TrEMBL record:
<dbReference type="GO" id="GO:0006241">
    <property type="term" value="P:CTP biosynthetic process"/>
</dbReference>
<dbReference type="InterPro" id="IPR012410">
    <property type="entry name" value="NDK_H5"/>
</dbReference>
<keyword id="KW-0963">Cytoplasm</keyword>
<comment type="subunit">
    <text>Component of the axonemal radial spoke complex 1 (RS1), at least composed of spoke head proteins RSPH1, RSPH3, RSPH9 and the cilia-specific component RSPH4A or sperm-specific component RSPH6A, spoke stalk proteins RSPH14, DNAJB13, DYDC1, ROPN1L and NME5, and the anchor protein IQUB. Interacts with IQUB.</text>
</comment>
<keyword id="KW-0206">Cytoskeleton</keyword>
<keyword id="KW-0217">Developmental protein</keyword>
<dbReference type="GO" id="GO:0006228">
    <property type="term" value="P:UTP biosynthetic process"/>
</dbReference>
<keyword id="KW-0744">Spermatogenesis</keyword>
<dbReference type="GO" id="GO:0005929">
    <property type="term" value="C:cilium"/>
</dbReference>
<keyword id="KW-0966">Cell projection</keyword>
<dbReference type="InterPro" id="IPR001564">
    <property type="entry name" value="Nucleoside_diP_kinase"/>
</dbReference>
<protein>
    <recommendedName>
        <fullName>Nucleoside diphosphate kinase homolog 5</fullName>
    </recommendedName>
</protein>
<dbReference type="InterPro" id="IPR036850">
    <property type="entry name" value="NDK-like_dom_sf"/>
</dbReference>
<dbReference type="GO" id="GO:0016787">
    <property type="term" value="F:hydrolase activity"/>
</dbReference>
<keyword id="KW-0282">Flagellum</keyword>
<keyword id="KW-0969">Cilium</keyword>
<dbReference type="InterPro" id="IPR007858">
    <property type="entry name" value="Dpy-30_motif"/>
</dbReference>
């Protein structure tokens, strides 16, 4: 009996991650955990926000009791901001962070990043976007030069792969089988660079 399996879905999302001032010394350690959790760091910058910039970034929290302390804390030193990408990036990053209160996180999610690196509800070590829409907004705030083109998903992603990726890759793998090089990975990488269909073609004019 043949069982038809559903085609794999292709989803890529972006989210904003911030290493807050009090754990900036753990930057490399935290980045390693991020990468080992399946994320790609596609943009990164170290900066220090002014109190006014922090107020704008956390504008949705304006009016809450903790707002002055939050802006003072976030502007107290440099931060590291990163754009993370993977399937379901927003939800996976929130899961990796754990509860916003680090004291509670150490009880309910002891292996989460906020349990490991945070101190309390205010100084919780790291920031993560709450939704896809807030992620896009926050990325534009921290990385104003970023071009946030929509990432193909579902059928659009499969169509893109079938049209632009698979033909070139299949030709490269066929050539690889014929050539049988000593180092297949390096050979295929060089072949794909050389036969990139989007590679600019220079036209030389011979002057007489």
């Amino acid at each position: 009996m043949e069982v038809l399996m559903p085609e794999p879905q292709i989803y890529v999302e972006r989210t904003l991650a911030i290493i807050k001032p009090d754990v900036i010394g753990k930057e490399e350690e935290i980045e390693d955990l991020i990468l080992r959790s399946g994320f790609h760091i596609i943009q990164k910058r170290k900066l220090q926000l002014s109190p006014e910039q922090c107020s704008n970034f956390y504008a949705e929290q304006f009016g809450k009791m903790f707002f002055p302390n939050l802006t003072a804390y976030m502007s107290s030193g440099p931060i590291v901001a990163m754009v993370l990408a993977r399937n379901c990036a927003v939800s996976y990053w929130k899961e990796l962070l754990g509860p916003s209160n680090s004291l509670r996180a150490r009880i309910t999610h002891p292996h989460s990043l906020r349990a490991l690196y945070g101190t309390d509800e205010l100084r919780n070590g790291l920031h993560g976007s709450l939704s896809i829409s807030s992620a896009e907004k926050e990325i534009r705030f921290i990385f104003p030069e970023a071009i946030l083109e929509p990432v193909p998903t579902g059928q659009r992603a499969r169509d893109y792969l079938n049209l632009y990726v698979k033909p070139t890759l299949l030709a490269g793998l066929t050539a690889l089988c014929k050539e049988k090089p000593a180092d297949p990975m390096i050979w295929l990488a060089d072949w794909l660079i050389e036969h990139n269909p989007n590679k600019p073609k220079l036209q030389y004019r011979i002057s007489q």
